[in-house]
Write a structure and sequence with these properties.
Helix content: 40-55%
Number of strands: 3
Radius of gyration: 13 Å
Strand order of the largest sheet: 1-2-3
Structural class: alpha/beta
Oligomer: single chain
Largest sheet: 3 strands, parallel
Shape: globular
Strand content: 15-25%
């Protein structure tokens, strides 16, 4: 029986091997298990706990989402969304 999984990554602009090995690689594995129902989020509201340049943050949000896709997360199998775009 599959699992319902929700996880996210802050758009820090520091996507590196540690982010990939610690989170995104596992996201891909979870995504590829057809039993799982995955939701992956760019948690941009969590990133604004420190001062942010709005243009850089916007770029980092896109970079994080692009990394999800480039790493192999299939949006036809999992939901990928930007936290601040959900009003609730």
């Amino acid at each position: 029986m599959g699992k319902k999984i929700f996880s996210g990554v802050q758009p820090t602009g520091n996507l590196h091997l540690g982010n990939y090995l610690g989170a995104i690689k596992n996201f891909v594995k979870l995504n590829n298990d057809n039993e799982n129902k995955c939701i992956f989020c760019v948690v941009d509201l969590h990133a604004i706990t420190v001062k942010q340049d709005k243009n850089q943050l916007k770029k980092n949000i896109r970079e994080t989402a692009a990394t999800f896709l480039a790493s192999g997360i299939d949006p036809s199998k999992s939901i990928i969304f930007n936290q601040s775009q959900v009003q609730a």
